[in-house]
Amino acid sequence: MRLDGWLLAVCAARTCMTSVFMTYAAVLPVLRTEWGMSGTAAGSVSTGFQAGYAVSLVVFSALADRVGARRVFLYSAWLSAVSALAFGFWARSYTTGLVLYTLVALSQGGTYTTAIMLIADRYPRERRGAAVGWLIASSSAGYALSLLLSGPSLAWGGYETAFVVSACGPVVGVVVVWLVLRGTPNVVHPPGTGVRFGTAVLKNRPAMRLILGYTFHSWELLGMWAWTPAFVAASFAVSGAGSVRAVELASYVSASFHLMGLAASSSMGRLSDGLGRRVVLLGLAATSAACSLAFGWLIAAPIAVVVVVGALYGFSALGDSPVLSTALTEAVSAPYLGAALALRSFLGFGAGAVAPIVFGRILDLTNVPGPSPTTWGWAFVTLGLGGLAAAYCARGLAPDRVKALRATPSVR
Q: How many CB atoms lie within 10 A of CB 392?
């Protein structure tokens, strides 16, 4: 499907909102020295962000069932702008960085799942995979923008400038969101008589398999996002680049990985509309798991090899996200979709919160103390285990059920 004006504006707002998400990861090699952090401490900041985001998604998703997705989206957008500015101007140490980056995450959850709910209300099922794909792609565009802004900002004025520049994105985003949602109705779906959350979600086997698949997918994806810029910087350093130059180059290369994720999100949702959710999920999860198991061992490989494998990694690790989201909107009835997304977010981003600190701990255990580890393979292997588990969950989905759900006319 083509982007219509409403979807284009929502996606543009989401891109602006997420332009602060990858700034910390982009400048992490410099921050480890400036803030005196071990690998475990460095991972804990990403963990704080992901944990805050998990809580935020749970709260905002559940609230949207009660007061409407549009209203929650707007509240979250305003909070995101304020917290991003606070992070940009005042995060100047490990402690302030941990606290303020977590506050950014706590404010952001209402700009994601509520957008999925608005799309589920607006588009029929045969077009929904493509629409959700564009939304996920817009998030990838924001992550890439975050990296593209951070690289030159770091070289020009240090990490402080990178923080401030990226914080401007959510400010622009809240203006866009306010303009586009003015004419969008705030819909609240009343729960069905005699139907409870346990029946609608917890005893819904396809829905729970999708939620577990998303949990393992998040472990792999969010751990990879948190540490890949630092790994690529280390690869450039091994090839002879200076430390700051290596970080700058790594930010550009990592941004290209997110652009591959953008391509995956905008295409895989549409592909699953035609081929079915199961086959696309299984292929992508298996591919990303293979990349996780191999990527970390390429630290001394030619940069071209790192870029090619990383591009495939970025494509496959994110490509199943819109498919998982779309399939869940089809497996759960509208009155309980927010609650289902809340549970999924809690488990998925909870796992994603643990992954960066586990990754950092593995780095500490497999390297001599210092800010520049040289052994990365075992840390990436821990992410690959999540990818394998996600592939197992996808394998258990029933393709005929997915297709039947997709073919059923929307009753909303």
A: 17
- What dihedral do alpha carbons 212, 215, 219, 221 form, nearest 10°? 110
Chain-centroid distance of CA 160 in Å reads 24
Distance (Å, whole) CA 144 – CA 152:
13
Query: Which tokens belong to 198?
Result: 């346990």
Please state, in angstroms and rounded to a whole number, the distance separating the CA atoms of residues 326 and 393.
16
Tell me the mean pLDDT per 10 residues along the chain, length 412: 81 94 87 88 86 87 86 94 95 94 93 89 82 87 87 88 94 93 84 61 89 95 89 85 72 84 86 88 96 94 93 93 89 82 85 88 84 84 96 83 40 34
Give Cα separations from 342 to 60, 350, 374 (angstroms).
Answer: 8, 11, 38
Tokens encoding 248:
């700058």
Is there a contact between 37 and 31 (Cβ–Cβ < 8 Å)?
yes
- Domains detected in the chain: 5-185+194-407 (1.20.1250.20)
CB of 232 closer than 8 Å to CB of 306 = yes
| Whether the Cβ atoms of residue 238 and residue 300 lie closer than 8 Å to each other | yes
The per-residue DSSP string of 260-315 comes to HHHHHHHHHHHHHHHH-HHHHHHHHHHHHHHHHHHHGGGTTS-HHHHHHHHHHHHH
Residue that has been written with the tokens 């039947």 in this structure: 404
